[in-house]
Write a structure and sequence with these properties.
single chain; 190 residues; alpha+beta; two-stranded antiparallel sheet; 2 helices; 18% helix
């Protein structure tokens, strides 16, 4: 079969359909049908997560899971994923502080002491609430520094399915609100 210059088979006896032309914007959903979700993960980094007076923000939320990420600077690095139950300040990929709301996910590097939380984070049945407050920066023997945290676990872990269902319901609420508004607008215009 002969090819055109664009690499698309030329029409012949078995392929006579016209070649469709599409644009990259043809697949964009209608804004009234979708709600934009933030799927980028942000970090809790004490050096950048301070208020205007220099006070450290804390990290409080459900300890959802642990992951190993690859850092160009440090190689494989264990992190904890915390779904916020209290607003805080996080940083983006370029270390710019950004406010984070209840329900957002935050990553925190699981330093030596925080690695102990990994077994709780990966429990398949329950989710515990964790409170992590930076206390001070400690100098290590190898010349690096590491944050020391005040770490507390909630006394009442919750079923994992219950916490995950709340997350899904949280995402659904804006969709339902948008659908209700659209239905109300349609009803009032008819």
């Amino acid at each position: 079969m002969a090819d055109t210059k664009k690499g698309v088979p030329a029409p012949n006896a078995s392929n006579t359909a016209p070649i469709p032309t599409i644009s990259a914007t043809d697949d964009m959903p209608n804004d009234s049908d979708f709600v934009k979700l933030s799927i980028t993960r942000r970090f809790f980094k004490p050096a950048f997560c301070k208020d205007k007076d220099g006070n450290q923000y804390s990290l409080r939320g459900h300890l959802m899971r642990s992951e190993i990420i690859t850092s160009p600077k440090y190689g494989p690095t264990p992190v904890l994923i915390v779904r916020l139950t209290v607003p805080t300040m996080l940083v983006d990929d370029e270390d710019n502080p950004t406010p984070a709301a209840i329900g957002d996910d935050a990553m925190i590097v699981a330093t030596d002491k925080l690695e102990k939380l990994m077994r709780f984070a990966d429990d398949p049945n329950v989710v515990g609430e964790v409170f992590i407050k930076p206390q001070r920066l400690e100098k290590l023997k190898n010349g690096h520094t590491m944050w020391v945290y005040d770490v507390r676990m909630g006394k009442m872990p919750r079923p994992r399915g219950e916490v995950e269902a709340e997350m899904i319901a949280g995402f659904s609420t804006p969709l339902l609100d948008a659908a209700d508004k659209a239905a109300s607008a349609a009803a009032s215009s008819s």
